[in-house]
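Treating backbone geometry as a discrete language has practical consequences that deserve illustration. No coordinates are needed to read the tokens, only the vocabulary itself. For completeness, the protein is quoted in full, as a sequence line and a line of structure tokens:
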Amino acid sequence: MIGASLRPEQKLLIAQALAEAGINSIEAGFPACGSSETEAVKIIAANLRGPVVMALCRALPGDIDAARVAFENANPFRSSVNIFLATSKLHREVKLRKSKIEILEMISSSIHYARKSFRLVSFSPEDASRTEPDFLCEAYKEAIDAGATSVSFPDTVGIMTPEQVRKSIRYIREHVSALDKIPLAAHFHDDLGLATANTLAAIEEGVRVVQCTINGLGERAGNASLEEVALTLSVHSEQYKCRHSVKLDHLTSLSHLVARETGIPVAPNKSVVGSHVFSTEAGVHQDGLMKDIDTYLPFRPALVGGKDAVLVIGKHSGRAAIEAYLNKRGYYFSSDMLDRILVEVQKDTESKPSDREFLLLNAVAHVTAHNVGAPS
């Protein structure tokens, strides 16, 4: 993602937090890109316990050699490479200028070469979603025959819909019998805002590995969001009927950590971990939340490690929320006075949420200044 450049020690910090949150595997870097990426993979592999650590590689011997150097002293059972090669007609003819036969040969030779150094080798057919289905299945078969221990289905440009995903995954599983023995992964980008929905559709069709990111970070519009996928699988466990190892109460702290280290803030209305998820200014919602917190929350904040629900005072707030807000601070007013304070609050159209307590107290001062004997 543009601007999300991390030093090796920052990557290690995030990787350790991911491991503590129960993540199964982490793609730690692209060693062929340079020494910083090599160092990141090296220190993560040396210091992490639990997850498989993966290095990204093109289908080139030099990339695989760079990964081997990065994993030189690592646990071989926890070290892996993810080899990618474009398979779509557009990429074959315009970017790579390779025939189908040449693409299949590159897949086979690179995986054979990688298996000399790595027990775990994944293959990703870049732009799979725009690849001819029959050729895509050929590519998977070639990869598996060469020794790939897992394969993925990348929607590289984020163009698919859930219905198309179901159809594609079903077709692949029907035509590549070896997928009964090795896992198929899903990799969706969010260009249409459908990455999470597409990932869930793939899971319903039998995919059991999800390639995703914290906060949905990633190229262009980003990738499928780990926090969205993991929470949905838990909230709707009866529908998806699959378990995961993610500790949901780590999601908010993970989100904050990644935002801090990358310098890319989380949108306040970001699902699951955004600051507005458990806050409301709407009077009707505030009244409901005060009576029963579940009236307007889809899940409790503690489930994802979030803070308690917050009633934000503003022009949309109702009388009940303002009364509760004032009572908590030691102010008690008659019904008539509260109505007048509400009118004053509703005049505010420009203030930021952080300024509204001051403005509310100003409204109190304005109203009480015109009422002899009003409470102080």
